Amino acid sequence: MEKYLLLAIFLQGFFMSISWAESKLKIGEKAYVWARNGIWLREEPSIDAKTVEELAYGTHLKILSDGIGSYKSLAKYGQQDSTTSYSTTGAWRKVKIESTHGGNKEGYVFDGWLLSLPPLKCEIKMGVKKRESERSCESIINWGTRSFGLVNKKKISSGGQGCNGCVTRYLFGKGFIYEEYEPGYGSEDKLTMPGFNLSEGIIAALGLFAWWDEEKPRIEISEKRVSFFGTYQRLVVELSKGGVKITDWCRDC
Question: Which of 43, 69, 81, 140 is buried deepest, with most CB atoms within 10 A?
Protein backbone atom coordinates (compact mmCIF):
# COMPACT_ATOMS: atom_id res chain seq x y z
CA MET A 1 0.00 0.00 0.00
CA GLU A 2 1.12 3.55 -0.61
CA LYS A 3 -0.49 6.84 0.15
CA TYR A 4 -2.06 8.58 -2.79
CA LEU A 5 0.52 11.17 -3.91
CA LEU A 6 -0.48 14.79 -4.16
CA LEU A 7 0.36 15.19 -7.82
CA ALA A 8 -0.92 18.38 -9.40
CA ILE A 9 -0.43 18.79 -13.12
CA PHE A 10 -0.61 22.20 -14.80
CA LEU A 11 0.41 23.24 -18.31
CA GLN A 12 1.94 26.47 -17.04
CA GLY A 13 4.89 27.65 -14.97
CA PHE A 14 8.46 26.43 -15.22
CA PHE A 15 10.81 25.05 -12.58
CA MET A 16 12.96 22.22 -13.92
CA SER A 17 12.52 21.42 -17.57
CA ILE A 18 13.04 18.00 -19.10
CA SER A 19 13.30 18.38 -22.86
CA TRP A 20 15.93 15.94 -24.10
CA ALA A 21 13.62 14.35 -26.66
CA GLU A 22 10.14 14.71 -28.06
CA SER A 23 7.60 11.94 -27.68
CA LYS A 24 8.21 9.09 -30.13
CA LEU A 25 4.53 8.14 -30.29
CA LYS A 26 3.24 7.85 -33.86
CA ILE A 27 -0.19 8.24 -35.44
CA GLY A 28 -2.16 5.01 -35.00
CA GLU A 29 -0.03 3.83 -32.08
CA LYS A 30 -1.57 2.74 -28.79
CA ALA A 31 -0.50 4.59 -25.65
CA TYR A 32 -1.23 4.71 -21.93
CA VAL A 33 -1.54 7.46 -19.34
CA TRP A 34 1.38 7.33 -16.88
CA ALA A 35 0.55 10.37 -14.74
CA ARG A 36 -0.24 9.06 -11.25
CA ASN A 37 -3.15 11.46 -10.81
CA GLY A 38 -4.31 11.32 -14.40
CA ILE A 39 -4.58 13.94 -17.15
CA TRP A 40 -7.42 15.86 -18.80
CA LEU A 41 -8.97 15.06 -22.15
CA ARG A 42 -9.93 18.42 -23.75
CA GLU A 43 -12.09 19.49 -26.68
CA GLU A 44 -9.29 21.54 -28.28
CA PRO A 45 -5.45 21.59 -28.05
CA SER A 46 -5.35 24.31 -25.42
CA ILE A 47 -5.07 24.60 -21.64
CA ASP A 48 -8.09 26.90 -21.80
CA ALA A 49 -10.22 24.44 -23.77
CA LYS A 50 -13.24 22.77 -22.19
CA THR A 51 -12.47 19.48 -20.44
CA VAL A 52 -14.20 16.33 -21.64
CA GLU A 53 -13.18 14.03 -18.78
CA GLU A 54 -10.26 13.09 -16.57
CA LEU A 55 -8.21 10.12 -17.79
CA ALA A 56 -6.89 8.00 -14.93
CA TYR A 57 -3.46 6.40 -14.63
CA GLY A 58 -3.44 3.41 -16.98
CA THR A 59 -6.09 4.69 -19.40
CA HIS A 60 -5.59 3.15 -22.84
CA LEU A 61 -5.87 5.41 -25.88
CA LYS A 62 -4.98 5.68 -29.58
CA ILE A 63 -2.88 8.47 -31.09
CA LEU A 64 -4.68 10.30 -33.91
CA SER A 65 -2.31 13.20 -34.69
CA ASP A 66 1.27 14.40 -34.58
CA GLY A 67 2.25 16.82 -31.82
CA ILE A 68 0.63 20.26 -31.87
CA GLY A 69 2.47 23.13 -30.22
CA SER A 70 4.85 22.86 -27.27
CA TYR A 71 3.87 22.99 -23.58
CA LYS A 72 5.26 22.31 -20.14
CA SER A 73 3.54 20.24 -17.48
CA LEU A 74 4.27 20.95 -13.82
CA ALA A 75 4.06 18.22 -11.20
CA LYS A 76 4.33 18.75 -7.44
CA TYR A 77 5.61 16.02 -5.14
CA GLY A 78 5.24 15.93 -1.38
CA GLN A 79 2.57 16.87 1.13
CA GLN A 80 0.87 20.23 1.65
CA ASP A 81 3.53 22.99 1.99
CA SER A 82 6.48 20.60 1.75
CA THR A 83 6.65 20.01 -2.00
CA THR A 84 9.13 19.99 -4.86
CA SER A 85 8.15 21.01 -8.39
CA TYR A 86 9.21 19.20 -11.53
CA SER A 87 8.17 19.93 -15.10
CA THR A 88 8.31 18.05 -18.38
CA THR A 89 7.77 19.26 -21.94
CA GLY A 90 5.49 17.86 -24.58
CA ALA A 91 2.80 18.68 -27.13
CA TRP A 92 -0.93 18.26 -27.65
CA ARG A 93 -2.11 15.07 -29.34
CA LYS A 94 -5.52 14.23 -30.68
CA VAL A 95 -6.49 10.84 -29.27
CA LYS A 96 -9.34 8.36 -29.14
CA ILE A 97 -10.31 6.72 -25.86
CA GLU A 98 -11.22 3.16 -26.70
CA SER A 99 -13.83 2.15 -24.14
CA THR A 100 -14.76 -1.50 -23.66
CA HIS A 101 -18.30 -0.32 -22.91
CA GLY A 102 -18.71 1.59 -26.17
CA GLY A 103 -19.11 5.33 -26.52
CA ASN A 104 -15.54 5.99 -27.69
CA LYS A 105 -14.47 9.60 -27.15
CA GLU A 106 -12.01 11.82 -29.00
CA GLY A 107 -10.17 14.89 -27.80
CA TYR A 108 -6.75 16.33 -27.03
CA VAL A 109 -4.26 15.43 -24.30
CA PHE A 110 -0.76 16.51 -23.28
CA ASP A 111 1.63 13.75 -24.43
CA GLY A 112 4.32 14.45 -21.82
CA TRP A 113 2.79 11.76 -19.57
CA LEU A 114 2.09 9.14 -22.26
CA LEU A 115 4.06 5.98 -23.03
CA SER A 116 3.48 3.03 -25.34
CA LEU A 117 4.10 0.68 -22.38
CA PRO A 118 1.23 -0.57 -20.23
CA PRO A 119 1.69 0.78 -16.67
CA LEU A 120 1.19 -1.05 -13.38
CA LYS A 121 -2.24 -2.42 -12.61
CA CYS A 122 -3.45 -0.61 -9.51
CA GLU A 123 -6.52 -0.43 -7.33
CA ILE A 124 -7.42 2.69 -5.35
CA LYS A 125 -9.19 2.53 -2.02
CA MET A 126 -10.81 5.91 -1.51
CA GLY A 127 -10.65 7.54 1.89
CA VAL A 128 -12.79 10.30 3.32
CA LYS A 129 -10.30 12.79 1.89
CA LYS A 130 -8.39 12.38 -1.37
CA ARG A 131 -5.01 12.54 0.34
CA GLU A 132 -6.09 9.69 2.61
CA SER A 133 -6.80 7.40 -0.33
CA GLU A 134 -4.53 4.40 -0.79
CA ARG A 135 -3.25 2.77 -3.95
CA SER A 136 -2.39 -0.91 -4.18
CA CYS A 137 -0.34 -1.87 -7.25
CA GLU A 138 1.14 -5.06 -8.64
CA SER A 139 4.88 -5.64 -8.27
CA ILE A 140 7.31 -4.69 -11.01
CA ILE A 141 8.07 -8.41 -11.40
CA ASN A 142 4.40 -9.15 -12.11
CA TRP A 143 4.24 -6.08 -14.38
CA GLY A 144 7.26 -7.23 -16.40
CA THR A 145 5.98 -10.81 -16.66
CA ARG A 146 2.53 -9.65 -17.77
CA SER A 147 3.82 -7.05 -20.22
CA PHE A 148 6.81 -8.82 -21.81
CA GLY A 149 6.98 -12.39 -20.51
CA LEU A 150 9.62 -13.78 -18.12
CA VAL A 151 12.56 -15.23 -20.05
CA ASN A 152 14.91 -16.09 -17.20
CA LYS A 153 15.34 -15.69 -13.44
CA LYS A 154 18.74 -16.03 -11.79
CA LYS A 155 20.07 -15.47 -8.29
CA ILE A 156 23.65 -14.23 -8.09
CA SER A 157 25.56 -14.39 -4.78
CA SER A 158 28.65 -12.37 -3.89
CA GLY A 159 29.77 -15.13 -1.57
CA GLY A 160 29.94 -15.39 2.20
CA GLN A 161 27.26 -16.47 4.61
CA GLY A 162 23.62 -15.68 4.10
CA CYS A 163 22.69 -13.52 1.16
CA ASN A 164 24.13 -10.12 1.98
CA GLY A 165 24.87 -8.68 -1.45
CA CYS A 166 22.82 -11.19 -3.42
CA VAL A 167 21.07 -10.09 -6.58
CA THR A 168 18.03 -11.72 -8.16
CA ARG A 169 17.98 -10.87 -11.86
CA TYR A 170 14.81 -11.11 -13.95
CA LEU A 171 15.19 -11.07 -17.71
CA PHE A 172 11.98 -10.19 -19.53
CA GLY A 173 11.11 -10.04 -23.20
CA LYS A 174 12.35 -7.11 -25.33
CA GLY A 175 15.52 -7.01 -23.22
CA PHE A 176 14.00 -5.52 -20.05
CA ILE A 177 16.03 -6.45 -16.95
CA TYR A 178 14.96 -6.06 -13.32
CA GLU A 179 17.44 -6.62 -10.48
CA GLU A 180 16.55 -6.97 -6.80
CA TYR A 181 19.46 -6.39 -4.43
CA GLU A 182 19.66 -7.73 -0.87
CA PRO A 183 22.37 -5.64 0.80
CA GLY A 184 21.18 -6.48 4.30
CA TYR A 185 20.36 -2.85 5.09
CA GLY A 186 17.56 -1.23 3.18
CA SER A 187 16.74 -2.21 -0.38
CA GLU A 188 17.83 -1.42 -3.91
CA ASP A 189 16.23 -2.26 -7.24
CA LYS A 190 17.36 -1.58 -10.81
CA LEU A 191 15.35 -1.62 -14.00
CA THR A 192 16.99 -1.49 -17.44
CA MET A 193 14.75 -0.34 -20.29
CA PRO A 194 16.36 -0.72 -23.75
CA GLY A 195 15.39 1.74 -26.48
CA PHE A 196 14.12 4.44 -24.09
CA ASN A 197 15.35 8.01 -23.93
CA LEU A 198 15.85 9.93 -20.69
CA SER A 199 12.48 11.71 -20.81
CA GLU A 200 10.62 8.41 -21.28
CA GLY A 201 12.68 6.81 -18.52
CA ILE A 202 11.66 9.53 -16.05
CA ILE A 203 7.97 9.10 -16.88
CA ALA A 204 8.31 5.34 -16.36
CA ALA A 205 10.29 5.74 -13.11
CA LEU A 206 7.74 8.09 -11.55
CA GLY A 207 4.93 5.73 -12.58
CA LEU A 208 6.55 2.47 -11.46
CA PHE A 209 8.14 3.46 -8.14
CA ALA A 210 6.24 4.92 -5.16
CA TRP A 211 7.85 8.00 -3.64
CA TRP A 212 7.67 10.82 -1.14
CA ASP A 213 4.39 10.46 0.66
CA GLU A 214 5.41 12.83 3.44
CA GLU A 215 8.70 14.45 2.51
CA LYS A 216 10.12 17.06 0.17
CA PRO A 217 12.57 15.56 -2.34
CA ARG A 218 15.57 17.30 -3.88
CA ILE A 219 16.01 17.04 -7.65
CA GLU A 220 19.31 17.18 -9.55
CA ILE A 221 19.35 17.34 -13.35
CA SER A 222 22.20 16.83 -15.82
CA GLU A 223 22.46 15.96 -19.49
CA LYS A 224 22.45 12.20 -18.92
CA ARG A 225 20.96 11.77 -15.45
CA VAL A 226 18.08 12.92 -13.25
CA SER A 227 18.19 12.14 -9.52
CA PHE A 228 15.44 12.49 -6.91
CA PHE A 229 16.73 12.54 -3.31
CA GLY A 230 14.56 12.08 -0.24
CA THR A 231 15.52 11.64 3.41
CA TYR A 232 15.46 7.87 3.14
CA GLN A 233 15.04 7.30 -0.59
CA ARG A 234 16.85 7.92 -3.85
CA LEU A 235 15.56 7.49 -7.39
CA VAL A 236 18.03 7.86 -10.26
CA VAL A 237 17.29 7.70 -13.98
CA GLU A 238 20.33 7.68 -16.26
CA LEU A 239 21.20 6.97 -19.84
CA SER A 240 22.90 3.62 -20.36
CA LYS A 241 24.03 1.79 -23.46
CA GLY A 242 21.03 1.59 -25.78
CA GLY A 243 18.47 2.83 -23.26
CA VAL A 244 18.00 3.95 -19.67
CA LYS A 245 18.60 2.46 -16.22
CA ILE A 246 16.42 3.28 -13.21
CA THR A 247 17.82 2.76 -9.70
CA ASP A 248 15.48 2.88 -6.70
CA TRP A 249 17.24 2.85 -3.32
CA CYS A 250 15.53 2.99 0.06
CA ARG A 251 17.07 2.98 3.55
CA ASP A 252 15.24 1.06 6.27
CA CYS A 253 12.70 -0.28 3.75
Answer: 140
CB burial of 109-132 (b: ≥16 within 10 Å; e: otherwise) equals bbbbbbbebbbbeeeeeeeeeeee
Q: Identify the pLDDT of residue 29.
A: 93
**pLDDT per residue over 212-250, tens digit each?**
545 567 788 888 998 888 777 888 999 988 899 999 987
Is 173 domain-assigned? no
pLDDT digits (tens, 9 = 90+) for 128-165: 555 555 668 899 999 999 999 999 999 886 555 556 56
| Cα 101 from Cα 83, distance rounded (Å) | 38
Asked if residue 168 is part of any domain, the answer here is no
Q: What is the DSSP string of 43-106?
A: SSSSTTSPEEEEEPTT-EEEE-S--EEEEEEEEEEEETTEEEEEEEEEEEEEEEE--TTS--EE
CA distance 67 to 224: 24
Burial class of 224 by CB neighbour count within 10 A (0 to 12, 13 to 18, 19+): exposed
Provide the domain count of the chain. 1
What's the CA gap between 74 and 77, in Å, rounded?
A: 10
Whole-model pTM above 0.85?
no
Q: Is 161 a member of any domain? A: no
Which residue segment(s) compose the domain that 67 sits in?
2-137+185-250
